[in-house]
Prior knowledge:
CATH architecture: Orthogonal Bundle
Number of domains: 1
Helix content: over 70%
Radius of gyration: 16 Å
Shape: elongated
Number of strands: 0
Order of helices and strands: HHHHH
Structural class: mainly alpha
CATH class: Mainly Alpha
Distance between the termini: 25 Å
CATH superfamily: lambda repressor-like DNA-binding domains
Amino acid sequence: MDDLDRYIRQRKGRSPAFAKDFDSGYEQFKIGVLLRLAREDAGLTQEQVASQLNTSKSAISRIENHAEDIRLSTLERFAQAVGKKLRLEIA
């Protein structure tokens, strides 16, 4: 375990509010990263995906960098634009 992991674990133990906010923020961050990686894996630029979704490059950038409160239909369209399928799991 590295220093960052140790720090996060300790902060979560001391502060339930930090733990809650960290976990939800991390999940939102992770969605954006997954979308960016899928786009890059498909060899597409933000401009190309924006064109397929009939939106702007800045909208794609916002989706990839601030994925909070993103609509399921938008996620599905994004996945299709990069040649992927959207699969959700409730665990």
